[in-house]
Amino acid sequence: MIGLVRLRRVSLASAQTWAGSLAAACAFCSAAAGGELALPIVIGFPLALAFALVFGDRVAGKYQWPWTALLALAFGTEVILVILGHEDPVLAAAQFSVLLCMHRLCHRRSAPDEHLLLLLSLLMVCAGAALSAELLFGVSFVAYAICATWALALTHLRFEVERRVEAPRRDVLAPSLLARLAALAVLGLAGTALLFVAFPRMAFGGLRRHPAAARSMAGLSDQVTLSGHGTIADDPRIVLRVQSVKGEEGSNIAGLHWRARSFDVWTGNGWRARTDLGRRRLLSEAPSMRRDPEWRTKRAEVESFQVDAVAGFSDGVILTPEGWPVSASFPHGFGSRSPRIFRNASGDFFYTPLQASDVRYLVNVDRAMPSHNELRGRGRDYPPEVALDLVVPPNLDPRVEALSRRLTAGKDPADAAASVELWLSNALTYSRELNGDQHDPIANFLFRTKRGHCELFSSAMVILLRAAGIPARNVTGYYGGTETDSGYVAIRAGDAHSWVEVYFPGAGFISFDPTPPAGRGARAEGLWAKTVLAWDSLAQRWSRFVIDYDLVAQSRVLSSVGKSLSSITERLRGKPGAAIAFQWAWPGGIAAVLLGAGAFYLARRKRRAGTHGRTLSGAEARARRLWVATRHRLEKSRIALAPSSGVREAALRIAAHVPAAKVPVEKIAEAVLAARWGGRPLERRQARALLESLDAALR
Q1: Which residue of 162, 203, 308, 547 could cross-link 241, Cys pair, CB 3.0 to 4.6 Å?
Q2: Burial of 205 (0-12, 13-18, 19+ CB in 10 A)
Q3: Each residue's pLDDT tens digit, 59-114
Q4: Sheet bearing 302-309, strands edge to edge
Q5: pLDDT digits (tens, 9 = 90+) for 196-236
C-alpha cells in the first residue's frame, strides 16, 4: 500500500523519464549479453545513463557540435576497423547504436526525442539478437518489452496532458496503468512466441552466430606450476556440457577423466609440454594392442560423446574421455569457416581457428582398456619416442630415490605403477592449500607436509616411476561432473584435475590416478554453485528450444502438436485408442478453464472496486460506466477533455464550449454524482436514456 501511495505521488514527467531510461538500460543489457562490446562502451553507457538522469535537463540541447564531432569520429573509427578486418561489422554496428543511444539520453526535450530514444533502444535490441541470443538476452528482451510499453504509453500521455492542461495534476499516473500496460506487453510477447513457433523456418542451424573474433586460451594453462601461496578456489563456473550420443546415464559420465593436455618436461618447479613433437598431424598411430584384429572384434567399445565447450576455458583444445580417442568432428562447423583438427604424437587434440563463442564437437572413443594382467610381462623395451618421459630431474633428493626403490624394486612395471599409485593415495592427504615457494616441491610434499593438491600427487608419481626407469608423464584435464535435469553432465572449473599416464610397450600410455578419490572433482555445493548450475540448465533449455529452433525442430514441434490434437479429436469421438494420449490433455483443459474463470472473476471485481479498494454497489458501478461512455462519446465528437478532469469540471467546460450538449451532460453529471457518492439508485434504463439524449444533442 505504501508503494502504491508513493507511486501516485510521482509526477507523470518523472515516471515517463524513468520508463524511457529503463527501456534503454534493458536494451543495452541485451546488446551486452554476448560479452563482445568494447570495455569503454560497457563502462560508458551506465555512466551516461546516470549522468542523463541527474543532469539531463541542464545539458539537453547544448554542446551539439562536440557531440556531433564525437559521433563522427566514432563512426569513422568503426568503419576503418571493419575495413581492416579488425572488427566484425555486426559488432561495429552494435557499438555505434549504443553510442547513438548515449547521445540521445542527454538530449530529451520533446516527444520526438523520446520516440527517437525508443527507436535507438530497439536498434540495440536488434544488435543484441545478432550478437548473442542467449538466455541473458531473452531476459533482457522481456524486460525491454515491458519497459518500452510503459515508455511509449507514458510519453503519449505526458505530452498530451502538457499540451492540453497548463498545470497537470500529479495523480494522473495510476498504479493500475503500469500493471495493465505490463500485461499488454506480456500478451504481445505470447503472440510473438506463437508466431515464432508457427512461422515457417527458412534455414537450418537456428539463430546461432559464429563471431569472427577469437580469444586466447584462458582456462587450461600451457604449463603446470607447483609453488604458490593461498588456496585453490573451487570455481563453480561451467566449462563443459557432456552428453552421451547413445543416451548413457549421466551418473556414468560424471565419473570420467576428461583429458586435455600432457606434460613431459620437468622444469624444477612443475611441468611444460615437449617441443620436439614436430608438426601436428590429423591422427597418431594406435598402439599395436588395438591394431590386433582379435582385440578390435572382441574388446572394442566405441562410444560417442557430444561436448559443448564454454568459451574461455579450453579454447583450441579438444577434451576426450577415458579410453583411446578414435576421431573428433564439429557437426555444425564454424559458420563459413571449416575447422581443422590436429592430434600430436602425445595424443593431444587441437583445433583451429579459435572461436569467441562456445563450440560443440563430437568425440568417438574406444572405452575398452587393457586389464592389469594384460599390462604385465610387456618388458622394458621402450621406443625412442618416450625417452623424454624417462628423464629424471638432476640433483634428485636421495629420499625420493630410496622411496622409489622401496615401492618398485623387483616388480613388473605394471605392479610398480599400481604400488606407487596405492601408496600415494593412502599415505598422503589431499588439500587445496598451496605449500608456498619451495626449492624442491616434490620432497617437501612427500616428506614434510605430506599433504597437497592433485598436481603434487601426479607429479610425485611421475618422478617416482621415472626414478625406477618407467616412462611416465603428467596429464591435466577435468574429472567428475554434476548431472543436471536437462539431460547433460555439467563439468565445472573446480573439476580441474591432474593425473598420470604410464607407458607400456604395445599398449601405449595408460592412465593412473594417485589422488585420493575424496579429493577429486569440485566440492562446490553452496547457494552460489547451485544458482550457477540452475542458470546454466535454464540457458541450455533456452538454447535448445529457441536458438537451435530450425526447420527440423519446427517440423517436430508441429508434428507433436498435430498428434495431440488428433488424439483429442479421437477421444471426443469415443475412440478408445486415444485414451492414453488424452488422459494428460483433459486435466490441462480443465485447469485452463478454471484459470480463465478465476481471471474473469478477478477482473470483474477489479472493475467494481472503488478508489480505496471498496467494492462498488450496482448503482455505483453503473454510474462509473455511464461517465466513461459519456467521455467516449464526447471524444468521438472531437470535444477534448483533460484526463484529470472531474465530473463537475467536465460539465462546466462542455457547457462553455458546446452549448448544444449542455443540458444532457449536466443531467448525466447529476445522475453520476448522485449515484456514485449520494447513494441514489441508478437503473440501467435511466442510464440508457441519458446516453440517448446525449447522442441526439451531438448529432
Answers
A1: 308
A2: middle
A3: 777 777 787 888 888 888 888 888 887 788 888 888 888 888 888 888 887 888 88
A4: 324-329, 359-366, 302-309, 238-244, 489-492, 482-483
A5: 666 665 544 444 554 544 333 334 677 888 877 667 777 78
Q: Is the pTM of this model over 0.85?
A: no
Looking at residue 298, its pLDDT comes to: 63
DSSP H/E element including 284: none
The grid coordinates listed for 438 are: 619451495
b/e burial code for range 604-628 (CB count within 10 A of at least 16 → b): eeeeeeeeeeeebbebbbbbbebbe
φ and ψ at residue 582, rounded to 5 degrees: -85, -20
Q: DSSP secondary structure string, 469-522?
A: T--EEEEEEEE--EE-TTSSEEEEGGGEEEEEEEEETTTEEEEE--S-GGGSS-
Nearest to 447 by CA among 509, 504, 401: 401
Averaged pLDDT for residues 242-266: 81
Helices 135-164 and 175-198 cross at an angle (nearest 10°) of 130
CA distance 168 to 483: 59
pLDDT tens-digit map of 606-638: 555 544 445 677 788 888 888 788 878 777 777
Backbone phi and psi for residue 478, each to the nearest 5 degrees, phi listed first: -135, 155
Contact 351, 342 (CB under 8 A): yes
The 8 Å CB, 24+ separation contacts for 390-398 are 390/466, 390/469, 390/470, 390/471, 391/265, 391/266, 391/466, 392/463, 392/466, 392/467, 393/266, 393/268, 393/463, 396/463, 396/467, 397/440, 397/442, 397/443
Instruction: Kindly tell me the burial class for residue 492, based on how many C-beta atoms sit within 10 Å of its own C-beta (0-12, 13-18, 19 or more).
Output: buried
C-alpha cell at 459: 607429479
C-alpha 251/C-alpha 417 separation (Å) is 28
Q: Which helix (H) or strand (E) holds 181?
A: helix 175-198
Cell of 306: 557430444
- Grid cell of 268 as nine digits: 624444477
pLDDT of amino acid 215: 37
Q: Which residue type is seen at 650?
A: A
CA–CA distances in Å: residue 221 to residues 3, 198, 218, 695: 52, 46, 7, 82
What pLDDT is attached to residue 354? Answer: 79
With both helix axes pointing from N to C terminus, report the angle between 551-572 and 585-607 in degrees, rounded to the nearest 10.
Answer: 90
DSSP readout, 1-19? Answer: -HHHHHHHHS-HHHHHHHH
Strand spans (E) along 505-593: 508-512
- Mean predicted lDDT score pLDDT of the chain: 78
What pLDDT, on a 0 to 100 scale, did the predictor assign at position 7? Answer: 47
DSSP 394-427: TT--HHHHHHHHHHHTT--HHHHHHHHHHHHHHH
How far apart (Å, rounded) are the C-alpha atoms in residues 424 and 458? 9
Each residue of 528-566: pLDDT tens digit?
Answer: 777 877 777 777 777 766 766 666 666 776 777 777 767
